[in-house]
Amino acid sequence: MRDRYYSKVILFGEYSMIFDATALMIPLKRFAAQWQFPQSRNRAASLTSNQSLKRFCQYLSEKEELSNLFDLQALRKDLNDGLFLASNVPSGYGLGSSGTLVAAVYDRYAVQKSDDYLQLKNLFGKMESHFHGSSSGIDPLQCYLGQPFKITPKGMQLLLDDFLKKDIYICLIDTKIKSNTKPLVNHFKAQRENPDFLNRFQAEYVPCVTSCINSMIEGNKELFFNSLKQLTKGQLEFLRPMVTDNTLDLFTADYDFNFGVKISGSGGGGYVLGFTDDVEKASALLKDFEVIWL
Questions:
Q1: pLDDT digits (tens, 9 = 90+) for 99-138
Q2: Distance CA 245, CA 121 (A)
Q3: Cα–Cα distance between 11 and 207 in angstroms, integer?
């Protein structure tokens, strides 16, 4: 059993993965969750987490396809003894706060663990649906594995921790707004019922995502930033409700150096992802935001 479960960043594919298109994930080890029993100094935080876990345990017990997969008797006993998940993963920021919880419960209480990543993804999706109404399962999978990976319709490819090329730098730009995943995902699903939207999204947007992913992994910097520029325009066209007003200028501006942004997670708040090959210029550009460099 792992001693901690790291948060995650979906670099690319947060909405296109709904179409089983390619996505790229990395762990964010700055934030993590770990099992603890309560102490007086963290009583309030432990109680909130414990109550959330009790509701999740009840959800698992009521789902016939899930209840037999876990030792729920042991989970209930531990929760009654005060067990909780100590976490510094920001909630509503697209970094996997619910994903770490799902991964931790599976890791500690699954009756039999699977090495089939796609099978795990499907199971985690059913588990995380408790929090978001529906889930691809990819967030908890990242939190469980703690390793970068690329997922495609044909399968999953684990990547080395240092797969990112040294001249492409990534940052998290804080919108100072908590995101509510469920209504945004529901809005997108309603949009894709429109045949024109669906056809254009698959023909125009999805290929941009794939190009960003492949060029980043291959280290083709010129193609990467050109693809990112097109992706940013695509997010304004297809995912406008997910772009916050206080970061809109970052999406619409033209830059005289390699810099681009995109939503992170479901969008609508949380962090915006920034990419550049010039940290000094990007830092000057983002001086009015709180920024975390990965």
A1: 999 999 999 999 999 999 989 999 999 999 998 777 888 8
A2: 33
A3: 15
User: Which phi-psi region, left, alpha or beta, contains residue 269 (left: φ > 0; alpha: ψ -120 to 50)?
Assistant: left
67, 78, 92, 10: which is closest to 38 by C-alpha? 78
Sketch the domain layout of the chain as residue ranges. 5-158, 169-293
Task: Compute the distance between CA of residue 122 and CA of residue 167 in angstroms, rounded to an integer.
Answer: 35
CA distance 93 to 189: 21
CA distance 65 to 75: 17
CATH number of 5-158: 3.30.230
Cβ–Cβ under 8 Å, residues 250 and 261:
yes
> Which of these, 80, 243, 254, lies nearest to 175 by C-alpha position?
243
Give the list of residues 6+ apart from residue 103 with CB closer than 8 angstroms, or none: 5, 124, 140, 141, 143, 144
pLDDT value of residue 133? 75
Interatomic CA distance for residues 79 and 98, integer angstroms: 17
Q: How far apart are CA 35 and CA 190, in angstroms?
A: 38
| pTM reported for the whole predicted model | 0.89
Report the pLDDT averaged over residues 25-39.
Answer: 92
DSSP conformation letters of 172-194:
EEE-S----HHHHHHHHHHHTTS
Give residue-wise pLDDT tens across range 227-253. Answer: 999 999 999 999 999 999 999 999 999
Nearest-angstrom CA–CA distance, 214 and 191: 27
**Superfamily per CATH, domain 169-293:** GHMP kinase, C-terminal domain (3.30.70.890)
Quote the CA–CA distance of 244 and 177 in Å, as a whole number. Answer: 8
Tokens of 282: 């990007």
Express each pLDDT in 67-86 by its tens digit: 999 999 999 999 999 999 99
